[in-house]
Amino acid sequence: MTSSSRTVSPNGGARVELRALGVRYPNAAAAAVHDVDLTIEAGEFAVLLGPSGCGKSTLLRTLNRLVEPTSGTVLIDGGDVRERDATELRRGIGYVIQAVGLFPHYTVAENVSIVPQLLGWDRARIDRRVDELLALIRLDPAEYRDRKPRQLSGGEAQRVGVARALAAEPRVLLMDEPFAAVDAIVRASLQDEIARVHRELKTTVVFVTHDVDEALRLADRVVVMNAGHVVQTGPPGEILERPADDFVRHLVGVDAETRRLATERPLIER
Ligand SMILES: Nc1ncnc2c1ncn2[C@@H]1O[C@H](COP(=O)(O)OP(=O)(O)OP(=O)(O)O)[C@@H](O)[C@H]1O
Ligand SMILES: [Mg+2]
Q: Which of 57, 61, 63, 206 to probe ligand 1 with, by most ligand atoms within 8 A of CB?
């Protein structure tokens, strides 16, 4: 397998800014996202971390307009996402979720080509792109391009989901608990994979998890959320060494020293 990945995305990443962002669902007692100001730099790997229901997915989904904010603004490279056509916006933003959602009757290659096809790329360019992406996620194109999703392991299907999200060279990649459904060993290898892909592509990644170790391991910057608020943002070392309050201290502090070591070597099941 050749590594052609350096040519995979010439685009780099986009800067993402949230300004006084609020989301309140109809009839909800409290806001799901409350007055969030956050800048994610171009090419940064940001991880939203926090307990179930704290608003991580809601915040993430405002970026590709699957959720419309009730107040505030989302800017991508300085442009308000509300001024973009939602469908066109989404084609330029990769999105990976826990339930991979590959089309069962499509082959791996067809699943990966969905967005390039919608964008009207020619056949040769699409074929090249599919092979390039399968190589990037370390699935041999000759062996995998014509398989159906049912002929893949859970981890392989999840990697195809990542390839599909990257197909049209998005400058922002959104990942919502993408590895939550696989076992710890596979999850560790998928984490290595996405860390390497990010190093090579420099795409801006916004990754959601409630797994502290996963967040500390992958993030350039951790964004800790609680009850709709962003309570702290910073590099993993800073979150561990200087938690902003008791909530963060409890979240990461069970065994901060062990975690610090764990972020420096491959994660194995503990
Ligand atoms: N479509 C919706 N309509 C109404 N309320 C919603 C909707 N989606 C989410 N909520 C509520 O908004 C809050 C935040 O939900 P969200 O899905 O963003 O949390 P989360 O941090 O992603 O949680 P999890 O880790 O469980 O996925 C929760 O109280 C949830 O019940
Ligand atoms: Mg969620």
A: 57
Q: Among the listed ranges 24-38, 107-121, 227-241, 254-268, which one has the minimum average pLDDT value?
A: 254-268
Q: Is 170 helix (H, G, I), strand (E, B) or coil?
A: coil
Task: Return d(Cα 141, Cα 57) in angstroms, integer.
Answer: 32
The CB of 54 under 6 Å from ligand 1? The reply is yes
Q: Give CA angle at 16 (12, 22), nearest 5°.
A: 160
The structure tokens listed for 54 are 């704290």
Number of Cβ atoms within 10 Å of the Cβ of 212 = 21
CB 221 within 8 A of CB 44: yes
Nearest to 57 by CA among 89, 19, 99: 99
Mean pLDDT of 87-94: 90
Enter the pTM of the model.
0.88
107 vs 186, more confident: 107
Question: How far, in Å, is the centroid of ligand 1 from the Cα of 31?
Answer: 10
